[in-house]
């Protein structure tokens, strides 16, 4: 028997790896910017968290635009 079609695989996966990678990339960007600015450990953590939130919002918006 033949396995699932490509459309079924993409639908089930729903690009979750791309979404997580995008969010992690934006979060690390915020954290590294704080590191290069010689920020405190707390500021680095906050910058990373804010980067993750911004990355999540941006990712949701981009996928919303692509599906619409």
Structural class: mainly alpha
Number of helices: 3
Low-confidence stretches: none
Elements, N to C (H/E): HHH
Could you tell me the strand content as a percent range?
under 5%
Terminal Cα span: 35 Å
Mean pLDDT over the full residue set = 87
Count of beta strands: 0
Largest sheet: none
- What would you call the shape? elongated
Radius of gyration: 17 Å
Helix share, percent: over 70%
Q: Any overview of this molecule?
A:
- The protein is built from three helices and no strands.
- With 68 residues, it is mostly helical.
- The protein has a domain of 31 residues.
- Helix 2 runs antiparallel to helix 3.
- It starts with 5 loop residues before the first helix and ends with a helix.
- The mean pLDDT is 87.
Summarize, please.
The chain has helices at 6-13, 16-36, 41-67. By secondary structure, it is mainly alpha-helical.
Tags for this entry?
single chain, 68 residues, 3 helices, mainly alpha, elongated
Task: Please render the helix and strand layout as text.
Blueprint: H1 6-13, H2 16-36, H3 41-67
Helix pairs in contact: 2-3
